[in-house]
Specification:
This protein has about 375 residues and is an alpha+beta fold. Helices cover about 25% and strands about 30% of the residues. It has 9 helices and 22 strands. Strands 7-8-19-11-22-9 form a 6-stranded mixed β-sheet. A 4-stranded antiparallel β-sheet has the order 10-20-13-18. A 3-stranded antiparallel β-sheet has the order 1-2-3. A hairpin with a 4-residue loop joins strand 2 and strand 3. Helix 6 crosses helix 8. The longest helix is centred in the last third of the chain and has 16 residues, at about 350-365. The two termini are about 20 Å apart. The chain binds N-oxalylglycine and zinc ion (ZN). Zinc ion binds near residues 181, 190, 192 and 331. N-oxalylglycine binds near residues 192 and 345.
Length: about 375
């Protein structure tokens, strides 16, 4: 895209592009994104916005072969803004982001995408898996051929998120459990660690063995449940997305508490998180924090979570790993009989930002 002409007013520069589009650049903003104001190696801003007048104007503006050259009053050196930078930074256009993937909600007839582990060494196959994960909040990686492969896949994506259960946790029937998951009882649909300041983004559960009778996984899309509530139970949806629920986990070593809105909305009122865990909802705090109206909305939500149209069921096989958005997809399991065979899942968490970063790095490497 080329700049055809420029015009200058008292507070902004206007560019006329060869595709007939016109874009405005307020001077104070140009001053703030001036490439000279960034450290050449770290690419971090060193310019201080308060060091110049808000009504700053350049003393000179020129269209050259390199782009736009500006002379700021307080600088000895002129600044150059390339055409590409100005095009990328067109006002009202957010920077293009390869990690942007719109979500698609699903119900119990959904078949989670399956991605063979070996292909994950190919960046494009890894990106396809991560995009499916962002779109549906759930994928299954297949054919992991050793017990360490599940963990290694996470290492090739990004940093793991540590919690009071460790970086890696072993989901097995333990003699002295501090978590219902470490028993053989059934687990109703939930999201993990709602008692944390930021519940982990994605959960990875690598199936090492699943030979016991029972132990099937149950998964449901919290965004689908929230969307339906928005449409059919608006009062309750509004309460659950504006008031927060206290959660608490405590054992011999920790007492971790935090409050979250069960349904999280972004600035555009789009659903972007669903945090639900009936066994960690903090009883006394809950009554103190919320009135009966909220209680009734919460009860309505629980019964909606149980509606049969939402969950899908699958039995993980050894060598499969399910990955799901822990602030969206609810997970649970059927009880199992520990005397009938071994059941062992190995888990860890990776936050959303790490997944997005990997997608951007893969996109950057494909362009190079
Ligand atoms: C968990 C969990 C499910 C299972 O570890 O958080 O919910 O299938 N496990 O054992
Ligand atoms: Zn869980």
């Amino acid at each position: 895209m080329n700049i055809l002409s420029i015009s200058v007013s008292s507070d902004m520069l206007t560019l006329h592009w060869s595709d007939q589009s016109i874009s405005d650049y307020p001077f104070i903003w140009l001053r703030d994104i001036d490439p000279l104001g960034f450290h050449p190696q770290t690419k971090e801003r060193i310019f201080d916005l308060t060091s110049v007048d808000f009504a700053i104007q350049p003393t000179e503006v020129r269209l050259t072969a390199l782009g736009i050259e500006l002379q700021w009053p307080e600088e000895a050196q002129g600044s150059i803004f390339s055409q590409q930078l100005l095009f990328d930074y067109r006002q009202h256009c957010a920077l293009q982001d390869p990690a942007t993937v719109d979500y698609q909600s699903w119900q119990g007839d959904f078949t989670p995408p399956r991605h063979p582990a070996k292909q994950m060494q190919q960046p494009l196959a890894m990106a396809a898996m991560l995009k499916d994960l962002k779109r549906y909040g759930l994928v299954i990686v297949t054919a992991l051929d050793s017990d360490i492969c599940g963990e290694q896949l996470g290492d090739s994506i990004g940093f793991k998120r540590e919690s009071n259960f460790g970086v890696m946790f072993e989901v097995i029937n333990k003699p002295e459990p501090n978590n219902l998951a470490y028993t053989s009882v059934s687990l109703p649909l939930h999201t993990d660690l709602p008692n944390q300041e930021l519940p982990p983004g994605y959960q990875f559960l690598h199936c090492i063995a699943n030979e016991a009778q029972g132990g099937e996984s149950i998964l449901a899309d919290g965004f689908a449940i929230a969307e339906d509530m928005r449409e059919h139970a608006a009062t309750q949806f509004n309460l659950l997305s504006s008031q927060s629920m206290p959660f608490r986990f405590h054992d011999n070593n920790v007492d971790i508490r935090f409050r979250h809105k069960i349904i999280g909305l972004d600035e555009d009122q789009q659903i972007n998180s669903f945090i639900f865990n009936a066994h960690l909802a903090a009883g006394p705090d809950f009554i103190a924090a919320n009135g009966l109206e909220y209680y009734s909305a919460y009860r309505e939500l629980i019964s909606r979570v149980r509606r049969p149209q939402y969950p899908l069921q699958l039995k993980l096989q050894a060598g499969e790993m399910m990955i799901f958005d822990n602030r969206r997809v609810l997970h649970g399991r059927k009880s199992f009989d520990p005397s009938s065979g071994n059941r062992h899942l190995r888990g860890y968490y990776i936050d959303r930002g790490e997944i997005d970063s990997r997608l951007r790095i893969i996109a950057r490497e494909q362009q190079a």
